[in-house]
Amino acid sequence: MTLIQIEHVSKYYVMGGETIRALDDISLEINHGEFVAIMGPSGSGKSTLMNIIGCLDVADQGAFLLDGKAINQLKDAQLAEIRNRKIGFVFQSFNLLSRLNAFENVELPLIYREMSKKEREPLVMEALEAVDLVDRRWHLLSELSGGQQQRVAIARTLAGDPAIILADEPTGALDSKTGAEILEIFKRLNEQGRTIVLITHDLAIAQQAKRVVHFRDGRLNEDQLP
């Protein structure tokens, strides 16, 4: 079943009086349960596409349907609700709050959903268990390694039970060994049925996904699709 449906999407930016076409007539479908890597060099358009899939931005032309629902004309508050309910983000820089411990960082999005403490706690513990961090749940970020912090970020995403996990260069700030461990977590989550979209410029990382979409100059390179 199709989860992400992108039809003839284009996105423009004006820089220094010049119009830049960041996405040029892109069409792409991603099904429930897929593990897809979107790969390309810096400036290729992959991050722009991620922002549209993540409801952080909207297309200037074309259509984007998420789970059958048209996204293009939604208001900011509606987009924020979809981000909170359906999309989990994992970033290169972790985007955690240093004043909170691991448990509190994972719990935070559930507080925004106005869940009670009784509802939140088992979800947080289950998410931390999925990334092998239950024993570190009361540790501050300063007491965790980079790899452990990224696992906290993944757990924060899992706690919200999103339809999609969007991972933007999730191993970019990590050494190769730790990065491989993070990729194994994503593989395991995908085997459990999670839909994962991985943004990367690194071919070796992209090849860990089950499907690779290549980007260049705002367009998909169909010749390189597996």
Description of the structure:
The protein has helices spanning 46-53, 76-86, 102-112, 117-130, 146-159, 176-191, 203-206; strands spanning 2-15, 18-31, 35-39, 61-66, 69-70, 87-91, 164-168, 195-200, 211-216, 219-220. By secondary structure, it is an alpha/beta fold. α3 (102-112) runs parallel beside α5 and α4 packs across α5 (146-159). It has one domain (2-224): P-loop containing nucleotide triphosphate hydrolases (Rossmann fold, 3-Layer(aba) Sandwich).
What does this entry show, briefly?
The chain is of the alpha/beta class and 226 residues long.
List the helices and strands and how they pair.
Elements: E1 2-15, E2 18-31, E3 35-39, H1 46-53, E4 61-66, E5 69-70, H2 76-86, E6 87-91, H3 102-112, H4 117-130, H5 146-159, E7 164-168, H6 176-191, E8 195-200, H7 203-206, E9 211-216, E10 219-220
Task: Write down the CATH class.
Answer: Alpha Beta
Uncertain spans? none
Q: Which overall shape is indicated by the principal axes computed on the Cα atoms?
A: globular
**Major sheet summary line:** 6 strands, mixed
Structural class, judged by helices and strands? alpha/beta
| The CATH architecture | 3-Layer(aba) Sandwich
GO molecular function, one term: ATP binding
Keywords: ATP-binding, Nucleotide-binding, Transport
Protein name: ATP-binding cassette domain-containing protein
Organism: Paenibacillus phytorum
